[in-house]
Write a structure and sequence with these properties.
With 158 residues, the chain is α+β, with helices and mostly antiparallel strands. The protein is 31% helix and 23% strand. It has helices spanning 90-108, 117-146, and strands spanning 8-18, 29-32, 37-40, 55-62, 70-77, 85-86. Strand 4 and strand 5 form a beta hairpin. The radius of gyration is 18 Å and the shape is elongated. The protein starts with 7 loop residues before the first strand and ends in a 12-residue tail after the last helix. 25% of the residues are buried. The mean pLDDT is 76.
């Protein structure tokens, strides 16, 4: 039994990079190609790994976030023989740590008089979300590593 997650693979030159506050508070965003398609990576990051003009492939899924068409899970530099890397895994790790910590607090000393199921469901969902996203990022890296890296960009993309 495995997790079935499918990704779209998009390639192009990075443009319109917003790696500080970005269009989405605290989350970096970028575009590929012209006409541009907007991608974002949820959660804050101290140093976004992509630079404007990089030729990359990204593993993405459609998103419901207004203003962005896709959420990016992983990237791979093309033409340099690089391996795929997860984009912004810190947010998912933070969800796992925070959820596990609050579940531990709830076990040690109940925070509310509400039925104990409610805190476990809410904090447990953080842990499940974080784990699912990390697994998805790993699968996205595998999908990107499986594609053949072109040595150069096609003339029509320049």
């Amino acid at each position: 039994m495995g997790i079935a997650v499918t990704f779209e693979i998009h390639t192009g030159f990075v443009s319109a990079l917003e790696n500080r506050a970005g269009r989405y508070t605290g989350s970096p965003s970028f575009s590929l190609n012209d006409p541009s398609v907007t991608y974002y990576s949820p959660g804050p990051t101290p140093a976004f790994p992509l630079n404007q003009g990089d030729y990359v492939a990204v593993a993405v899924k459609r998103t419901i976030v207004p203003g962005a068409q896709f959420v990016a899970f992983a990237y791979r530099g093309l033409g340099v023989g690089a391996s795929a890397k997860a984009l912004n895994a810190g947010w998912q790790i933070l969800c796992i740590i925070a959820g596990a910590t609050f579940i531990g607090f709830e076990i040690a000393a109940p925070l509310t008089d509400v039925a104990p199921v409610v805190p476990f469901l809410s904090f447990g969902s953080l842990v499940v979300f974080g784990i699912f996203r990390l697994i998805s990022m790993r699968l996205a890296c595998r999908a990107l590593d499986a594609i053949e890296s072109p040595l150069t960009a096609r003339f029509g993309e320049l």
